[in-house]
Amino acid sequence: MKYTRTSIVIAYALALAAIFPGMTAVGLAQQNPVAGEVQVFHVRGNIYMLTGAGGNITLQTGKNGVLLVDSGLAAMSDKVVAAIRTVSKEPIRFIVNTHVHADHTGGNENIAKLGTTITDVNAFSDIAGPSEVPGAKIIAHEAVLDRMTAGGNGQPPAPSGAWPATTYVTKRKDLFINNEAVILFHEPAAHTDGDSVVFFRRSDVISSGDLFTPDTYPFIDLPRGGNIQGILDALNHIIELAVPDEREEGGTYIIPGHGRVCDEADVVEYQTMLTIIRDRIQDLVKKGMTLEQVKAAKPTFDYDAHYGSTSGFWTTEKFVEAVYQNLTKK
Amino acid sequence: MRRVLLVLLIAGGIPMSLLAEVDFSGYWHSPMQEDGPERGGGPLSGEYVGIPLNDAARLRADSWNASLLTVPERQCIPHPADYGPSFSNLQMWKETDPATQAVIAWHTHISWMAPERTIWMDGRPHPPDYAPHTWQGFSTGKWEKNILTVTTTHLKAGWIRRNGVPRSDRATVTEHFMRDGDVLTWVTIVYDPENLTEPMIRSRDFTLDPYGVMGAYPCESVEEVVRAEGVVPHYLPGTNPFLTEYATKYGLPQEAARGGAVTMYPEYRTKLKALMSSSTVPK
Description:
Helices cover 33% and strands 22% of the residues of chain A. By secondary structure, chain A is of the alpha/beta class.
């Protein structure tokens, strides 16, 4: 038998793989989080990501105090505050909600009441000291307030202490906090009807909320105004805002609603997946297929191993149903 | 003699005194003679032979449209760590602790699109799951006798072959760097539970070029095709007209072109002969 150099090398590699099986990811030393704990990841400058509290939380800190994008689950508030205090001793001043869901707003009341808001001296100086009143300011799109006060879809109204008292109804809301522009963009009819993308312009970091979840199909909350096209529009907007560094990576960082810190290329990958699935289902709808026929055609088959789920509240089947309903709605 | 040496090495029979850290520093020329058609002009659509891809990966690849590469956000993407060795020349250098002279890291720079990698040799752990992923991933290395073995995680979603065969961002890669005189052999093993049924193994050889100079490779996206925002070029299932091109060009049965783990092994030649003699071979 004649051996080529390549065949010897490959045999060698196979032998090494057998001799050193520990050199796969299984045997790696890795700094992975402990379940039930909140982890802090330094993204850039004065921006951090807190993970493990439900949805991801973005933390910005500086002379104006701590700004949070989302507040995690209510039950995790103590751990969230402890995590905040590992990077900042400044007062908690602002909580921006990307949308209404409890894994992003559940900590509003618990965390906001630990903070303060600087306000008009004449009105409040005798309450909590000069220019300061108890409670951090909670900010969100108007639809978030509407949903929280009304409850519905099996949920009771949120406690009033969790409500965003500062809302906006325009396309965007501009803030200037901790020496940088913080811009809230409303992304209509997307994950819900009250989604905000938060752009930290100087830090070049975007908090996307659940419009972008790199490891799962997007949750399209139909009862709360969600729509596949709105999610795609929002992803295209994030891609428009983001600018990569050399070799198409880094540059603008995107903190997703759940999952790891990402950049534009990761959003492009997700947008590509979602556009292809939308196009496939649209094509099947045009052919007159029923929902059951669309499901049987498995339009997500090649992406399910990464994004899909057969259990939990948001399965692949529910995702396909939601897209179908969006695309067939008259 | 080389075979005997390799067998001894595999068996762990080389005395430790003969083994040491190998110096890979220098400019390495990529002769491009291995898998030439894939590496030069590139593979054809639907050419999956020799890849242990699963059905999901095959559907992804069937849906792939080369025009995707014209999307501005994709024009300057370098080949990821596991595919980069297939292309162009290579520069390697080491970074040492100035006090102890211990090697902290090895670095690689590949000519095409200028991707650079750092292979940490100082025992640091890999980042947590929620850290960013990059095209080149996070790599740590260790010496196994005189072979540098590298483990890479935190890769961005990439490709097994540049005709749309996907590689997920959950894949891990093991590499072996081996130097034999002026020849460098770089073996890459990709483990991807989402797209592969077995590890994908490739080897690439390089020759040392003492006169080699690495050139710059700047890249700037341009609008190659005017299209509406958000349009993603792809083929709907069953509509890609190019999937039979490869089999037709080389007179192979389409079944072989569709790839899968079975097409990696020598035993497949027997099946291929049978298929070739049947009427399934495109004329």
